[in-house]
Amino acid sequence: MVLSQCELTVLVTSTRSDSHNWNLVFLQLLIEELGHRVIGLGPCVPDDLLIEECRASRPDLVVMSSVNGHGYRDGLGAITRLRREPSLAELPVVIGGKLGVTGAPDTDAALGLLDAGFTAVFDDGNVAAFREFLTLPAGRPGRERDIARRNRVTA
Amino acid sequence: MTAAAAPTAVRAPVLRSPFGRFVAESAAAGRLVVQPRMGFADLPRMRLGLERTKSAAATTVGTLTIDSYTRLGDHAAARRALDEGAGLNGYPIVSHSRATTRALLDGVRDASFPVQVRHGSSRPHHIIRALAGAGIDATEGGPVSYCLPYGRTPLRDSVRNWARACELLADTVPAPHLESFGGCMLGQLCPPSLLVAISLLEAVFFTRHGIGSVSMSYAQQAHPAQDEEAVLALRRLAAEFLPAGTDWHIVLYTYMGVFPVTEHGAGRLLEESARLAVRSGARRLIVKTAAEAHRIPTVEENVRSLEAAALAAAGATVPPAGTPAPESGIHAEARAFVTAVLDLGDDLGRSLTAAFERGHLDVPFCLHPDNAGRSRSFVDAEGLLRWSSVGSMPIRPDPGPGARAAMTSDQLMSALHGVARRFDHP
């Protein structure tokens, strides 16, 4: 199965403290153009709301985007909470954007996000890797982690 | 009236806020006030930032930009980040004690160096209390501009919060100054007339809730002539709609969208904004830095930008009096928005809420549920920002060449990066 050939329901969300919009508008258009349905939660999404929405709308994928520099911290909090919910333990959840305040990718922090339960972590502007993620065959063990690690190293 | 009664007829001088007075006096001396966006959780760094801003070779005011946890009212998260020594994207004014903030400002803030708190909160109560407690008299915000693009608070609640915030500010600070963020909606791709109208309406809202010194913002967009026309339109509308005796000025923001990534591109865009400020009669400029495309700028980068902007402003020429202003209809459109809202009733907060409900005001690309989301904009071949769709707004659509019903992600990316591209690759 190739992800892009079936219509997925993708939940697009910001992190809890991030009020930016353009990243969310762009992701919505991009994911829709790839043939999927988007549920947009908008900016500043609290963890409780994210979990509630994941339960209610049963998305196939969650895309979390952040540019305000609190992405590592907020992402870690969100995924830790989300993975505690048994019904959401297997849900693919990815994160990307400007995740720290220094502007430099922080590989340790990104690996920390993966260890805490994110399926993939994308650096700011790495749309190609995100597209690749959405179009590669699903189900290959370790595929997301491969992409994520490669992304960290090459970004 | 007898001659003896005449002295009582002379109006007392308007009590200007220290912030408003500083800007007015600088303008009278022909100097543009420049200001950074600057906020650090680390106290020595924040202090150094204020000191270096003050000593920069420019006419400056200082800034405490507040972190986004505090902005959202999540003071526990800000406190935890402070305790853990984690990086924050601003100064957590509520988590720091009043004494700490007073000590931070002691010996830096004075009549020659006002300090403004910049935040972005639709629930500003705690921030206002904290800044008033620390003796600060200037801040910014707005019922619409701190709600619609940047959060989840219902507009109705934000309006109520900002009415109370204005009243709290007026009650706790002797002569406060409040700036509308309304000239920024989403930072880019909002046509100038709507920015002008929202900025003006928010300033009127502030005055109706007890604030006597206000500034109206306008964020530099895609085209210098269009921006100049917009600032002039804002000044005309301010003169017409603000109550007599209001102390007001225009503050320009250097481009708030995707910023050039090269040093020369960022520098040229900044200088263009400084010249625009001088040409259009804005009295204050909030600068950006070359680091903006990547991360939060350092103190040194901010100082370099302040000095570069001041230099560009000093070399800019004011058009001679009587020079005809560019006129493409921005003033008429903005006036149509303003009167459409004011005609909805005496309670401006209610009218703003109703105007968004009815789509009379409709910010393009804004995801907030209280925004109708039927308007769309585009950048035409000449670089002018125009309406491709106006939804239910009280203006005409502008279906010139290049107008598109829908934008693809690539086209959106291209539009968002247009200014950066132009300045990075001249």
Tag the structure with descriptive keywords.
heterodimer, A: 155 residues, alpha/beta, Rossmann fold, 6 helices, 5 strands, 17% strand, globular, disordered C terminus, B: 426 residues, TIM Barrel, 2 domains, 16 helices, 43% helix, disordered N terminus
Examine the secondary-structure arrangement and name the CATH architecture of chain A: 3-Layer(aba) Sandwich
Individual helix count of chain B: 16
Helix content, binned percent of chain B: 40-55%
Determine the structural class of chain A based on helices, strands and strand pairing: alpha/beta
Tally of helical runs of chain A: 6
How would you write the strand order of the largest sheet of chain A?
2-1-3-4-5
CATH class of chain A: Alpha Beta
Structural class, from secondary structure content of chain B?
alpha/beta
CATH architect. name of the largest domain in chain B: Alpha-Beta Barrel
Low-confidence spans of chain A = 151-155
Q: Report the radius of gyration of chain A as a whole number of Å.
A: 14 Å
Q: CATH-wise, what's the superfamily of the largest domain in chain B?
A: Methylmalonyl-CoA mutase
| Total tally of structural domains of chain B | 2
How many runs of DSSP E, i.e. beta strands of chain A? 5
Strand arrangement in the largest pleated sheet of chain B: 2-1-9-8-7-6-5-4-3
Strand and helix order of chain A: EHEHEHEHEHH
Oligomerization: heterodimer
Largest sheet of chain A: 5 strands, parallel
Protein name (chain B): Methylaspartate mutase
InterPro entries (chain B): Cbl-dep_enz_cat, Glu_mut_E
Pfam families (chain B): Met_asp_mut_E
GO molecular function (chain B): cobalamin binding; methylaspartate mutase activity
